[in-house]
Specification:
alpha+beta, 9 strands, binds glutamic acid
């Protein structure tokens, strides 16, 4: 039966191949169809309107200053791989990037060290299935307990950024994020001070890593640079440009500048899919089917390779630390546009 089926398909396939060659279309890389401006504008507005009255979740308060961020804020933004921007709601409000920073520092480490293996060899890429700051996970066997998107692995990633001093390490990260966002960025100082005064748990992570030779700079220095990194302010629109740079194979679609080598993009996205939502990563893959990263500041960026980044921002987070309204908004857009990477189901 198999043979019969493939024989029937040959003439059609030849015709398509011939047409593709005539049209100059590369068969190995099908053209990405980005929905029209009208459709993108509509779904962004609908996603905002539909979930703006949702009150589930609460602003994170384990970093005291975060509890002061107005919980009503809600913004939704799409930036396409061509650099077009669609936005609704509070998309120009700077919030702390928090853990949404983590994949971008992993990208910087790959870029600086000229290879993706460094993440595999020195940190790990397995989802922990535990909370973002699980000490238990960090203590389990090296290479299967940590990845760059949970706190301990992210602190290890920071320690791998090449620099002569802690200040230079942070400046390198800040400058890199600025190139990803197509905008100069800065630290939201009150949140940094607040987290620096209360981050004993992250210090514990760093010392556990140190005890097993899995941190690569002075441990407390790495925690401080990590805390500053998490306190960098971004707007939903800027975060969407950062995500769109991944969607556009490492070239920032707004500036036209290459920020990350194409070969590292699938590595970053793979880690995002497996661990971007911490202990809800499986649920997210099941519902939205897109690589994404969340942060306790209320931001989420989802990447649709070749097409766009979708960002939701709203400070009320659930028990796993993921923004409730941002998740709903991104899920809605992914569903409306059939963006699930495993198939639209239609
Ligand atoms: N700076 C936060 C921490 O280390 C980030 C956590 C998050 O956004 O999930 O706890």
């Amino acid at each position: 039966m198999q043979t019969g089926i493939s024989k029937e398909r040959v003439p059609g396939a030849c015709l398509i191949a011939a047409l593709a060659v005539l049209l100059g279309v590369a068969l190995s890389a099908p053209a990405q169809v980005i929905p029209s401006a009208q459709v993108l504008g509509r779904v962004v507005q609908e996603a905002h309107d539909q979930f703006k009255d949702l009150r589930d979740g609460a602003t994170a308060d384990y970093i005291p200053e975060l509890a002061k961020v107005p919980s009503e804020l809600f913004g939704v933004a799409i930036v396409t791989a061509r650099g077009d921007v669609f936005a609704a709601g509070d998309v120009d409000y700077p919030f702390t990037i928090q853990s949404v920073s983590k994949p971008f520092t992993a990208a910087l480490v790959m870029q600086q060290h000229g290879g993706a293996e460094i993440i595999l060899d020195k940190i790990g890429v397995e989802p922990t299935g535990q909370r973002f700051n699980s000490i238990l996970a960090t203590q389990v066997i090296a290479q299967v307990s940590v990845n760059p998107l949970v706190n301990s692995g992210a602190i290890a990633a920071v320690s791998l950024v090449e620099a002569a001093s802690a200040q230079e390490r942070f400046d390198t990260i800040l400058e890199y994020y600025g190139r990803l966002a197509a905008a100069p960025l800065s630290v939201i100082e009150d949140v940094y001070q607040s987290e620096a005064a209360t981050n004993q748990r992250n210090r514990a992570h760093a010392y556990i890593l140190f005890a097993s030779d899995r941190i690569y700079s002075e441990p407390m220095e790495a925690v401080d640079v990590y805390t500053r990194q998490c306190s960098i302010g971004v707007t939903a629109k800027q975060l969407a440009v950062m995500g769109a740079t991944l969607a556009n194979n490492g070239v920032n679609p707004v500036t036209g500048m290459r920020v990350l080598d194409t070969r590292y993009v699938p590595k970053v996205l793979a880690i995002m899919l497996m661990a971007g939502f911490y202990d809800e990563s499986g649920l997210w893959a099941y519902t939205a089917g897109l690589p994404a990263k969340t942060g306790v500041g209320g931001g989420i960026v989802a990447v649709v390779p070749g097409k766009m980044a979708i960002v939701g921002f709203s400070p009320r987070v659930n028990a796993a630390g993921n923004s409730v309204r941002a998740m709903k908004a991104i899920e809605y857009i992914a569903d409306q546009l059939g963006l699930n990477m495993f198939g639209s189901g239609r």
